[in-house]
């Protein structure tokens, strides 16, 4: 399997540090009542960033669940900007502009998995290069959408990579209450596709697994299911109190495997990272998130954005709604 080289590892660590830093800022902004609900990425950085760095941004699609957006920096600043707009209630904020191949966050568990399979099938029918990588959680894997999409993908051999991030929890439901299977990867057997489990705290392992799955997919051999095991280090969302159900011993043990700290230490030991580099990356990350937040805050809510991006042209009902809302826009904004 192809491994990331040192330069790539530095970029991976940089993106992981950016994601962790920005997640902390968003948490504080939510506590100040300035932004909406946030699902922190803490603990998932290695899995998300490692996976994305194995993709080609020009040809490969990423379909996130909701915890990934801060880890998708490789796909460009538009991902963060639109995420901020979306968080502040702009409907069109979910629409990431072309040619960025990232879809909006998906709150409805599992719903993006059939989309991923359809997209990959369409790409193959149109003879387009590239693959589709869909992120979902251990909890989302219990949805019928996962089984239906996985089955169809296996039959059609479409270029899709199913990346299940098993963070041991679905809000307060632990994995032993989620499935009686030995692993989430083992579910691949029923789809007739390979299923592998990798250490999601190690971005190199995830990078290698995704690279391998990508080679398989682009050479017409079909999908792969990858289970990346991590531990959710933060709350489920800003609306959750994990101290009520996460055993403190489990959390302390998981903190010892914190993916950001582990890679930082390893890279420092190898002379590939330093405290000053860390400080510089954190400073830029904070400037960037504050800038995205200010921009989103100062973007007026647009009535049109409610209906743009639904269809190529409005249905007659949408046209009526659009003109009604446009006429009462002043009142709505107040
Ligand atoms: C179809 C559906 N059912 C239930 C929910 C409520 N819900 C939101 S997040 C969540 C847990 C998801 O867990 P997992 O897929 O493991 O992702 P994680 O939050 O752990 O990253 C649940 C049950 C939902 N959003 N959609
Ligand atoms: Mg989970």
Draw up the topology in text.
Layout: H1 6-31, H2 45-52, E1 61-63, H3 78-87, H4 112-125, E2 132-137, H5 144-156, E3 160-166, E4 169-170, E5 173-174, H6 175-178, H7 188-191, E6 195-199, H8 203-218, E7 224-229, H9 248-256, H10 259-269, H11 275-297, H12 316-327, H13 329-333
Parallel strand pairs: 1-2, 2-3, 3-7, 6-7
Antiparallel strand pairs: 4-5
What does this structure look like?
It is a single chain. Helix 8 (203-218) links the parallel strand 6 (195-199) and strand 7. The protein is globular and about 60 Å long. Helix content is 46%, strand content 9%. By secondary structure, the protein is of the alpha/beta class. Helix 1 packs across helix 2, helix 1 runs antiparallel to helix 10 (259-269) and helix 2 packs parallel to helix 8 (203-218). A five-stranded parallel beta sheet has the order 1-2-3-7-6, with helices on both faces. It has two domains: 6-299, Thiamin diphosphate (ThDP)-binding fold, Pyr/PP domains (Rossmann fold); 303-334, no CATH class. The chain has 13 helices and seven strands. It has helices at residues 6-31, 45-52, 78-87, 112-125, 144-156, 175-178, 188-191, 203-218, 248-256, 259-269, 275-297, 316-327, 329-333, and strands spanning 61-63, 132-137, 160-166, 169-170, 173-174, 195-199, 224-229. Residues 137-139, 167, 169-170 line the site of magnesium ion (MG).
